[in-house]
Design a protein that fits this description.
Blueprint: H1 3-20, E1 23-26, H2 31-44, E2 48-51, H3 60-73, E3 76-78
Parallel strand pairs: 1-2, 2-3
Length: 79
């Protein structure tokens, strides 16, 4: 995807989330959820909560990655 198209997509995602005023994001520790979490934080700032559900399917590394992403972005994170 070209940079212009990516930028346009980012703006659309931010705008859609901003319209809601707040958001809850499922944060798995992977790249996709981390990217959406970062965009949601740009959109609603402190009105964002990231949630990670622990289970046998979630590796310890993924949990640590999710915690690190939430801390780096500066978002409230519930595990």
């Amino acid at each position: 995807m070209e940079r212009n198209n990516l930028s346009m997509l980012e703006k659309k995602i931010i705008s859609a989330i901003k319209e809601k005023g707040s958001a809850i994001i499922a944060l798995s520790g992977g790249v996709d959820s981390a990217a959406i979490c970062a965009l949601a934080h740009k959109a609603v700032g402190k009105n964002l909560t990231a949630v990670t559900i622990t289970s046998e399917a979630l590796s310890k590394q993924d949990l640590e990655d999710a915690k690190a992403v939430a801390e780096k972005i500066g978002v409230h994170h519930i595990v």
